[in-house]
Amino acid sequence: MRRLNTEVAIVGAGWSGFRSISPDLSFREMMFEAATKAYTDAGIDPRRDLDGLVTAEEDFHEGIAISDEYVPDQMGAVLRSVHTIAGDGLQALAAGVMQIAAGAARIVAVESHSKASNVLNLDQITALAMDPVFQRPLEVHPVFIAGLELRRYLEVTRTPIEHVARVVVKNRRNALRNPRAAFPADLSLEDVLDSEPLAEPLTRAMAAAPADGCVVFVLARGDVARTLTDRPVWIRGLGWATDSYTLENRDWEGARYLRQAAERAYRQAGIRSPRRAFDLVEVDDTFAYKELQHLEALGLCRPGEAGWWTAEGATEVGGELPVNPSGGCLGEGHLLDASGLARLLEAVLQLREEAGPRQVPNARTALVASWRGLPTTTGAVAVLSREP
Amino acid sequence: MPLKERISHIDEVRSWQGSIRLEGVYTAGVAGERWLRGLQEGRIYGTRCPRCRYTYVPARLFCERCFGHLDEATWVEVGPQGTLTSWTRVHVALDGQRLSPPRCIGLVRLDGADALLVHDLLEDGTPLRVGLRVEAVFRPPAERVGSIRDLAYFRPVP
User: Fold this and answer.
1) What's the rounded mean pLDDT across residues A272-284?
2) Of A13, A108, A216, B50, which residue has the fewest beta carbons closer than 10 angstroms?
3) Residues of B with CB below 8 A from A121's CB?
4) What torsion, rounded to 10 degrees, do the Cα atoms B85, B90, B94, B100 define?
5) What is the pLDDT of residues A323-342, one digit of tens each?
6) 3-state class of A21 per DSSP?
């Protein structure tokens, strides 16, 4: 993929949540709230201006078969083109960008949400994503994959487990300055290392807890974007990739899916030295080690370097390259299919200088990277900039 | 906007609980069927792609690397010994309850294979480490049904 044929910008952002539970709202009302904010932010009337809607969701998370039919009403998208992606929200962003780049739409809304607190057996639903013939009969909690991968990562990169714990401390502290975050906390390394084991050496504190929330963006073609706002956030590059889904043949060490996705996005954005290209990074940290593994896969540091880099404070707000100033999934809560859009939301607010007390000074470019979560091998990358 | 209209009394919150019943059969396929029959006989097979020089376990009919067909001639026996590539103790059950004692799971590269097989790992007091030599232990023949569970577990090679 070369440079996009058409300029596409994010001209509006809205959200609902994020909270550990939300018994006061249905998922439709959460979407309505987030969409209303996003359309107000973009200064559009969806019934007049919206050409299409792209959502990312998973039937089993919704508890409704063919749940993608349940999205247009509360988004102002009845009788518009509606397209649902079974994947992470960043893949829905990509689909929205493609609709505009293809000339099929001028203004598109992108949405994803999580009502994780409504799912009474989330672990079992994740387990249903395991291979039904070769793994499901073992009846093991799928977090074993994270345990195996973490140990492999530590072994291959010679990273001390304390550096993984450091990611948790940093991200949940960052979340203290983020009003959207469901799980802000001031933890010590010992709190993280001594929390109950999930799948050794992974502890409970190293795994992001699910949260409820919804994120909506409004995308517009370049010329339209310029008429709508004086602070568009431009999408300069996009990539996504899926590794072998098998546990047997996937890459257990380097998050190959994200390396591939990043290469595509960088090529599109014309980035040759990623380490010097960004003012901040929002990256998937569903499990603390994933932040380190993903930073390396993104080419921001060499394999085995991310832990040391983190320990030196380089990834703190105020460091060489702030990583997850929002608090990441660990601090904000894991929004299931919307977790990539939660990362994107922080990047957009940062580039608009609307991130309040956690603002990275003079942020002009940002990198966003997502992972579709256990047991998948799918990742997506977006390169954002204040300049087209 | 629902912002002002949120339900503020917890006893006013109504929800309906439901469950989804999903039943199906999962066809193992040509290669899967033969592979599982192999387990029933106490043998672990793989298919070796001659172009990529990569051996798949469980055996597959196709190579994901070159998209080639893996025919009869590509079937090879692997294991039963192998090397531990990673391991974990899982402390949580599928229903979210704590699992005590924890369940030990290994990631094993069987001798002759490139793929990594996941299965239970018996803890016999041998200190676990990456690189440990392990071997497959099958259930007694009468208990085997042609399932991944015919392979009972891996254990450290004595």
Assistant:
1) 97
2) B50
3) 95-96
4) 150
5) 999 999 999 999 999 999 99
6) coil
Q: For residue A6, what are its two tokens? A: 């058409």
CA A59 to chain centre: 19
Spatial separation of the C-alpha atoms in residues B45 and B80, rounded to whole Å: 10
SS3 content of chain B, % helix, strand, coil (to 5): 20, 35, 45
Tell how strand A202-203 and strand A197-199 pair up.
antiparallel
Using a CB cutoff of 8 Å and minimum separation of 24, what contacts does A363-366 make? Answer: A363/A279, A363/A280, A364/A279, A365/A277, A365/A278, A365/A279, A366/A278, A366/A279, A366/A280, A366/A281, A366/A282
| Other residues' Cβ atoms within 10 Å of the Cβ of residue B53 | 9
Distances (CA, A) of A314 to A148, A150, A259: 27, 22, 21
Q: What burial letters (b/e) apply to A34-50, b meaning 16+ CB within 10 Å? A: bbbbbbebbebebeebb
CB contact under 8 A, A148 and B88: yes
Closest to B36 measured CA to CA, from B144, B122, B110: B144
Nearest Cβ partner for A248 among B89, B92, B117: B117
CA distance A74 to A34: 10
Residues B2, A32: C-beta atoms closer than 8 Å: yes
- Calculate the alpha carbon distances from A100 to A79, A118, A238, B119 in Å: 18, 34, 14, 47
Domains, chain A, in order of start with CATH, read 8-120+211-228 (3.40.47.10)
Residue contact A199–B26, C-beta within 8 A: no
Given A32, A33, A152, which is nearest B86 (Cβ)?
Answer: A152
pLDDT at residue B1 in the model = 46
Mutate to test the interface with A, among B56, B83, B118 (most CBs of A within 10 A): B118
Sort residue A313 into left (φ over 0), alpha (ψ -120 to 50) or beta: left
- Does B26 sit within 8 Å of A133, measured CB to CB? yes
- Percent of the residues in chain A that have a pLDDT greater than 70, as a whole number: 99
Cα separation, B25 vs A91, in Å, equals 31
